Amino acid sequence: MARPRKSSVALLELEELLMPISEELPCGEDLEYDPVFGEMERAAQGKGDQQFGETFVAAEAADWREVRKHVDDLLPRTKDMRVAVYLTRCLAQSDGLVGVESSLKLLRCYLEDFWEPLHPQLDASDNDDPTYRVNTLAMLCDTATVLNEIQACSLVSSRAMGQYGLLQIREAGETHEHEPVEPQNSGWADDDSADADEEEPKGPSLAVIAAAFTDADPAVLQATEEAVRLSAEHVGAIEYLVTQKVGAAQAVSMKPLRSLFEEMLDLMQPQLERLGIGIEEEFPELVAENVGDDATDQVAMARHQGIQLDGRISTRADAIKALDKVCEYFETSEPSSPLPLLLRRAQRLASKSFLEIIRDLAPDALSQAEAWGGGAGPILEGNAEEAVSYEEQADSSEEDTSSSGGW
After folding, report:
1. Which of 25, 79, 206, 260 has its CA 20 to 30 A from that of 200?
2. Does residue 270 lie in a domain region?
3. From CA 323, how far away is CA 23, in angstroms rounded?
4. Taking the CA of residue 203 as centre, how many other CA atoms within 13 Å lie in the half-sphere pointing to its CB?
5. By C-alpha distance, which of 48, 54, 88 is closest to 68?
6. Are residues 346 and 356 in the same domain?
7. What is the pTM of this model?
8. Total structural domains in the chain?
């Protein structure tokens, strides 16, 4: 399978690009009116439908190879936010999310290291008005261009199962919302199945995409997740820096782009956890003790026993243990607090059936429950056997959901 691409620094030769172009002009000349700059912009626009007499010429998409050629011509000659934005769009096409992270890092460094001379410059004739720069950053949040191009980048690629990005995963979550999924294998939450005569959804299902994660190269998955995480950090840093420089009233909100990366992380991380990718960083002691061939088995065993790599509570037993720790804290640090009494009672009731809990909480038991629920359901009608059966089914459903691992 394909190995991860080079690091972002190597990909963009970042150190060289961040060297001052000259002592007098560290960011070089403003090349907005340079012919190459204009050609870069035109190549990125593509061409719409054209008609010459009776001849119809179909629209042409942007020529990203041509755009990249012009970007590479401009980068050594000028430090310009607009060129960095076009670089982001080029790399989204050619290098995916790893490339996007590289260009966002370059833009962040431009702003951090070259704020004053960076192009487009602040308007000195209008009290250093930052509108041009703010508008340039706003291009990164354009739904029709940059956001759409980044959403199309692959999050997972498998030779056997295909490659899928955020758009496909979103669509699968919507069109296959009621499709049954193997909870122990998918990493997605299990939903109720739809009626049998419903129209079969089109496109890949969540189970198919989960299988792609399973088949994908772990190193590539980890590199992609790292690129997404760093991209979110770069966007946050850019937004913060610009706000500090120009004030909140004139700054630009980059929430649409930041939220996009955060959504990607929310989708990827449960899959990586399910596969044990990155566990050596989160549980070094587990890996250190199991460096042999059985390390993977140990990780799988931990997951089977309900251990969540992100600290989430996934079973009733986990919840009871968590209550125990909360009680220990209050008993040790705040001995006068009455909370341990209430928490211990909740802990004691956690393993009981619904009917037993009702009887423990209220002296009049079923009559009190009837007042709560309006007389509906087996418990409220006084059928204890049905009530216990109902509770057991609920427990079974809870366990199935907790073992699904995520999404």
Report:
1. 260
2. yes
3. 63
4. 17
5. 88
6. no
7. 0.64
8. 3
